[in-house]
Amino acid sequence: MASKGSKTKNAAAARREKIEELRRAERARDRRYRIITIVSCVVIVVGLVVGGYFIVDATKDKDDKAKAVTMTTVKTGEFKGMKTWKNLGRTHVNGTVDYPMSPPVGGNHNQVWQNCNGDVYKKPITKENAVHSLEHGAVWVTYTDKAPAKDITALEKRVQQTPYSMISPYQDQDAPILLNAWGLQLKVDSADDPRVADFFKEYVQGKQTQEPGAACTGGKAA
């Protein structure tokens, strides 16, 4: 028969064994939690990296597409031969802009528009301001020193009678007279060319306008 002391020792040993078993279980549980935490963190980091890559890649692709200005030429109709551009930027910038066409008919531009309420300019105007006017739906007539004086006079008269239009000399162009609207450019032979009236009718505040009804006064006057 076991003595009272032996029973006490056995009970104490059993308690120690139980405590040690609980500690082992707790250590094992801690190890599992650490492993789960590490794996979860790795998964999250990988997900963020991969997700970030796709976001950056998608943004880059979108930006690349936005920068890819395309040009086509109208093949038939009343404006046959008219050049058209798409994907033109519209950001307000300071300083000069390198445009893909001359004169420019769209793209990033100065935050101040050129007054285009039937304004006649005898000297060249700043193209970055003029592009802003085209964004507002203006038609911009440009001419070189090769344009006949009588045609310039007739075009100036038409402009003076037409809100949302302006005219100015512009030497760096491939024809004596050009009609310009946002994304559109048309060579005409003279002020008597019937396409002049058609162009004004179609594109003064026309469907190409990026900001219909925006002001053509209160901007740059010279």
Features:
222 residues, alpha/beta, Glutaredoxin, 2 domains, 43% helix
CATH architecture of the largest domain: 3-Layer(aba) Sandwich
The H-and-E topology, N to C, reads as: HEEEHEHEEEH
Summed over residues and divided by their number, the pLDDT gives a mean of 85
The CATH topology of the largest domain corresponds to Glutaredoxin
Shape: rod-shaped
| CATH classification class of the largest domain | Alpha Beta
> Total helix count?
4
Largest sheet: 7 strands, mixed
Range of strand content: 5-15%
Helix content: 40-55%
As laid out across the biggest beta sheet, the strand order is: 1-2-7-6-4-5-3
How many individual β-strands? 7
Number of domain units: 2
Please tell me how large the radius of gyration is: 37 Å
Organism: Streptomyces sparsogenes DSM 40356
Keywords: Membrane, Transmembrane, Transmembrane helix
Pfam family, one: DUF3105
Protein name: DUF3105 domain-containing protein
Task: Itemize the secondary structure elements and their pairings.
Elements: H1 4-67, E1 70-73, E2 83-86, E3 117-120, H2 127-135, E4 139-143, H3 149-160, E5 165-169, E6 177-181, E7 184-187, H4 194-203
Parallel strand pairs: 3-5, 4-5
Antiparallel strand pairs: 1-2, 2-7, 4-6, 6-7
Organism: Streptomyces sparsogenes DSM 40356
Keywords: Membrane, Transmembrane, Transmembrane helix
Protein name: DUF3105 domain-containing protein
